[in-house]
Design brief:
Elements (H helix, E strand, L loop, with lengths): L2 H23 L9 H10 L32 H38 L6 H13 L8 H11 L5 H12 L5 H6 L6 E2 L5 E2 L11 E3 L4 H14 L4 H12 L6 H5 L10 H13 L16
Antiparallel strand pairs: 1-3, 2-3
Length: 293
């Protein structure tokens, strides 16, 4: 084959190869997207908006039918204090009056028993009811029952009850005061006896007691202080003051309230501090409540 023919054949072969490959030489491979580019594209796309779910706060209905003053709406502190004390005072004063009347009866029975004059059947029945109410053993002699009852059946200074109510209920604004008329932080242990504390420890059974009236709440407080074993020291201090014909001083008696709160001594200091700073609200307090018999 001549050189011309070889060149021609070579040219034809190259042309054939070019004709086959040519269509693919203009196709560029699509580069893999980098992380930055992917994020950039994602940012360019319209974002889906999520409508936040509305949290519907459940309104807790009161467990009573008492119309309470809206203490939270009273911004003037002296006005709030006076309004709160005036609201609580009648029930406290009523229970103290009842206790002093019962105490006078017990003192008369003690005198009669000491003189060996005895009690009537009606008086004996009333004494038995009081012994049961105040957790005094029915197996004790009449004289022993009367002595024990006179330690338990006694008034509590009005000012002390008022500042404890203010302290425990945040001046009547706490959930337990508003929903269950519990101004004193009293617990109960039967299912559904009151309100479950939001911070109650796992496994705990106690609830915060609910009352139907302010009078019932105050009655529960007096029963707690005058019967529970935790307040034996309080009652002993009160009895000592009576024995020495001393006034039932609220600050002195407050020292017997160490078990009332887990805060112990700090709680007592808070109460005594409140007693001192709120003296002007107690000026109208019946002085006979603080005087010895």
């Amino acid at each position: 084959m001549s050189i011309v023919n070889r060149i021609t054949s070579a040219v034809l072969l190259i042309g054939l190869v070019v004709s086959i490959v040519a269509p693919f030489t203009f196709l560029k491979p699509k580069p893999l997207a980098t992380l930055d580019e992917t994020e950039s594209r994602a940012e360019q796309q319209p974002k889906k908006t999520h409508t936040p779910l509305k949290v519907i706060k459940k309104v807790e209905k009161p467990l009573h039918s008492v119309t309470l003053p809206n203490f939270s709406a009273i911004y003037d502190i002296p006005t709030k204090k006076k309004r709160f004390f005036d609201f609580m005072r009648p029930a406290i004063r009523e229970h103290n009056n009842q206790l002093l009347k019962t105490r006078a009866k017990l003192e008369y029975w003690l005198e009669q028993t000491s003189l060996e004059l005895g009690l009537t059947n009606e008086e004996q029945e009333e004494l038995a009811n009081l012994a049961k109410k105040y957790r005094v053993s029915k197996h004790n002699s009449t004289l022993q029952q009367l002595d024990e009852l006179l330690v338990k059946v006694d008034m509590i200074p009005e000012s002390l009850v008022l500042v404890q109510a203010a302290n425990e209920s945040a001046w009547g604004t706490s959930r337990f005061a508003r929903i269950g008329l519990n101004f004193f932080g009293i617990w109960c242990y039967k299912p559904k006896c009151g309100m479950v504390p939001s911070g109650r420890n796992a496994g705990a059974k106690h609830e915060v007691a609910a009352f139907k009236s302010v009078d019932a709440a105050v009655k529960g407080y007096f029963k707690n202080i005058n019967t529970h074993n935790a307040y034996r020291v309080f009652r002993s201090i009160r009895s000592q003051l009576r024995e020495h014909n001393q006034p039932l001083d609220a600050e002195i008696l407050a020292t017997g309230l160490l078990p009332y709160s887990e805060r112990g001594a700090h709680y007592v200091l808070d109460i005594t501090d409140m007693l001192r700073h709120n003296q002007r609200y107690f000026s109208a307090e019946d002085t006979s409540f603080n005087a010895a018999d």
